[in-house]
Design goal:
This is Calcineurin-like phosphoesterase domain-containing protein. By secondary structure, this protein is of the alpha/beta class. The chain contains ten helices and ten strands.
C-alpha cells in the first residue's frame, strides 16, 4: 500500500544517462516507500558510454512515458537540464552526443518542460552548481536573493533561446577542460566546493560520487553556519560500464537532507542490478 504523500518531501535523483528503464522503477519504489509528493531530476538523461541511437530512443521513450504518467497521477515531477542535454539544445556535438538525434532530444526536453534550475526548500538545484565567480559575472545577486529567485534567473537564460544565453549556462572551467568560469551545468565538484555561493544550499549531480553526500562548506562570508552542498550523481558508469556509485538518492524534508539507499527501500543492490540490466540490454545501448 502506498504511503500518504508528504507535500514537503522531495526525492532528488542523479544523472541517468540512458538508464531510465532500470532507474525509474527504483524511483517509484522510493516515492511509494517514503511518501514523496515531488521528484526532481538533476539532469543528463542521455549519452551513456557506448550508447547507440536505438538505446537512446528507448531511454527517451521510457522517460517521456514515466514523466507524463506520473504527472497525470498527481506526482510533481521536475527535470533540470545537464550539460549533455543542452548540447542537443545547442545542436552542437559534445561528449557522447548523438548528432542524428539533435531534433528528437531537443523536442522531448521542451515537451517535458526541462528547466535550468529549481528550488527544493531553501536549496537551489542545478546540474553542476553555481559558483560565486560565475554568479557574480552572470546573475543579479541583489541582497536577500534566495534559491527560488536565482532559479528564475537561470531559467530566464534557458528560455531566452539564443545561443549567447545557453553558452552562459554551459561555460566550463579548468576542472572540466574549459577556459571560462565554471557554469551551472559544467562546474566540477572541486570547483563548486572551492567557490560556493555564500548563504545558499545547493543540490547537484554531474560529478560521480560513491554515495549521496551532503557536505557542509565554509563559504568564507563570515556566516556561522556553512552552506550545504549535496552531491547526487550515484548512477553513473565508467567508460568500461562499471558502476561508480551505489544508486542512492537524496530525500529533502523541510530543511533536512539525507541519503536513501537500497536497503531502506527494499531494493536489490544497485551495482548487480545495473549489471543484470546491461547484460540483457547492452545490444541496445
Amino acid at each position: 500500500m502506498a504511503r500518504e504523500r508528504d507535500i514537503e518531501r522531495t526525492l532528488v535523483v542523479g544523472d541517468m544517462h540512458g538508464k531510465e528503464e532500470v532507474i525509474l522503477p527504483r524511483v517509484d519504489a522510493a516515492v511509494e516507500r517514503l511518501g514523496c509528493a515531488r521528484v526532481v531530476f538533476c539532469g543528463d538523461y542521455v549519452d551513456e558510454w557506448h550508447s547507440s541511437i536505438l538505446g537512446m530512443r528507448d531511454a527517451m521513450r521510457a522517460l517521456r512515458s514515466w514523466v507524463l504518467e506520473r504527472r497525470a497521477g498527481g506526482l510533481a515531477v521536475e527535470l533540470v537540464a545537464g550539460n549533455h542535454d543542452l548540447q542537443y539544445r545547442l545542436r552542437e556535438p559534445g561528449p557522447g552526443t548523438h548528432t542524428a538525434l539533435f531534433d528528437e532530444v531537443a523536442l522531448l526536453l521542451d515537451e517535458l518542460g526541462v528547466r535550468a534550475a529549481t528550488a527544493v526548500g531553501e536549496a537551489l538545484v542545478t546540474h553542476a552548481g553555481v559558483t560565486r565567480a560565475w554568479a557574480n559575472d552572470c546573475l543579479d545577486l541583489a541582497e536577500g536573493t534566495d534559491a527560488a529567485a536565482l532559479a528564475r534567473q537561470l531559467n530566464a537564460l534557458l528560455d531566452h533561446g539564443e545561443k549567447i544565453s545557453l553558452r552562459m549556462l554551459t561555460q566550463a572551467g579548468a576542472g572540466r577542460g574549459g577556459r571560462e568560469l565554471p557554469g551551472p551545468v559544467w562546474a566540477d565538484r572541486g570547483e563548486l566546493c572551492a567557490d560556493p555561493l555564500p548563504g545558499l544550499d545547493q543540490i547537484v549531480g554531474h560529478t560521480p560520487v560513491p554515495t549521496v553526500e551532503v557536505r557542509p562548506i565554509d563559504a568564507g562570508d563570515g556566516a556561522q553556519a556553512p552552506v550545504r552542498l549535496a552531491f547526487c550523481d550515484t548512477f553513473s558508469l565508467t567508460s568500461r560500464l562499471s558502476p561508480i556509485g551505489d544508486g542512492s538518492m537524496l530525500v529533502v524534508d523541510g530543511a533536512g537532507m539525507r541519503a536513501v539507499g537500497d536497503e531502506e527501500l527494499g531494493l536489490p543492490p544497485w551495482k548487480p542490478a545495473v549489471w543484470d540490466w546491461m547484460t540483457t540490454r547492452f545490444h541496445a545501448l
